[in-house]
Design a protein that fits this description.
The chain has 184 residues and is an alpha/beta fold. It has helices spanning 27-34, 60-71, 124-142, 161-166, 173-182, and strands at residues 9-15, 37-40, 51-52, 57-59, 77-83, 87-88, 97-99, 105-109. The longest helix is centred in the last third of the chain and has 19 residues, at 124-142.
Length: 184
């Protein structure tokens, strides 16, 4: 029927050890923000070939490429891979995540979002807030959004953990408008 809304489904896909993280706290905010059905996917293994032993990190673009071919997402499905390993991208020391802009797949790493990564005592509330911000940010890219210059917007680029902590978990009015238009 003309004008019928197609339900987008977002899969939260833990990779490797990330299956130990209780990710259900993301379902409600992601459902509300993206107006999509959000479901947990069974855990998958991280492709071993993505590991760079010289760096001690995993190449995010390689993981995205391998998972894209293996997941077989439908046209109305998006996937958010969640890894608990340190990620990097070519030319960068590390990344919190990477996404296919206007695509179907994104990845975030929770490794550097933990206080213990920096030798500090764990704080579950801070950890969850950071995961939520990075999940929304990378999914924003999947829905076509670019980085935003508004410092409080979740689409503002995070070059450091301080940047992630400083920004909000919501889209600025401009990015929210672009998100809504992308779903029409």
């Amino acid at each position: 029927m003309a004008g019928e809304l197609v339900q987008i489904r977002i899969w939260l896909i833990p990779l490797g050890q990330a299956e130990k993280i209780k990710l259900d706290f993301l379902i409600e905010p992601l459902t509300e923000i993206f107006q999509a059905e959000v479901k947990l996917h069974p855990s998958l293994e991280i492709p071993r070939e993505a590991y760079n032993s010289r760096r001690g990190q995993y190449l995010s673009s390689y993981i995205l490429g391998k998972m894209r071919s293996g997941l077989n997402l439908g046209p109305e499905e998006k996937g958010l891979l969640i890894a608990d390993v340190d990620l990097y991208a070519e030319g960068l020391n590390f990344v919190f995540g990477e996404a296919e802009i206007n695509g179907s797949l994104a990845i975030i790493s929770v490794a550097r979002l933990r206080e213990s990564f920096y030798g500090l005592p764990e704080n579950e509330e801070i950890f969850r807030t950071r995961i939520k911000k990075e999940a929304i940010h990378e999914l924003g890219h999947v829905f076509g959004l670019r980085h935003c210059s508004s410092p409080g917007c979740v689409m503002n680029f995070s070059n450091s953990l301080a940047d992630t902590d400083r920004k909000g978990a919501n889209f600025c009015p401009s990015c929210l408008s672009l998100l809504r238009k992308s779903k029409d």
